[in-house]
Design brief:
- The protein contains four helices and ten strands.
- The chain is α/β, with parallel strands linked by helices and 159 residues long.
- The radius of gyration is 15 Å and the shape is globular.
Length: 159
């Protein structure tokens, strides 16, 4: 279901924060008074952030610095792969999920992970798919790929 209000959070067991423009998302979260309710939701329930959603989950955001929910011990650099023209599709090898197609669109790079963050996949040496406790983040767009392994892993954590 779409989540548009703090009351909507009461009806769900987990949340996916999609890609998009993180600064616009932050502005809307503040305007709709959703920032703190999302932070509180993530304190007890799983959240999966893709691309801009991963930026919002991070503890620290660079290039430029911006606010975030701070739900995962990550330092993320926005638009680190370059401009729209630098967007690309790659195949990631993972130990437990097999090969995963990853669509990178003006993607962030995870520059640092905390001790409790598990790296599920790397691209060009950098973590691009991670999990920490109940939360998961991907700097690519799994919803645009041909497979569903990334989403299946998140859904398995809801059971």
């Amino acid at each position: 279901m779409e989540v548009r209000t703090a009351a909507d959070l009461q009806a769900i067991d987990g949340l996916i924060i999609p890609g998009g423009e993180s600064t616009t998302m932050l502005k809307l979260l503040e305007e709709e008074k959703m920032f703190q309710p999302l932070r509180e939701f993530g304190a007890t329930k799983p959240v999966f952030g893709t691309c801009a959603g991963a930026i919002l989950l991070a503890k620290e955001v660079a290039s430029p610095h911006q606010a975030s929910l701070g739900l995962m011990d990550l330092t993320v650099e926005r638009n680190a792969y370059g401009r729209q023209l630098d967007s690309h599709i790659s195949t990631l090898s993972t130990e437990q999920s097999g090969d995963v197609e990853a669509v990178f669109i003006r993607a962030p790079i995870i520059r640092q992970t905390g001790a409790d963050v598990r790296i599920l996949a790397r691209h060009r040496g950098d973590p691009v798919w991670v999990e920490q406790g109940r939360h998961m983040a991907a700097t690519f767009h799994p919803e645009l790929s041909t497979g569903s392994r990334v989403h299946e892993r998140f859904m398995a954590g809801l059971k």
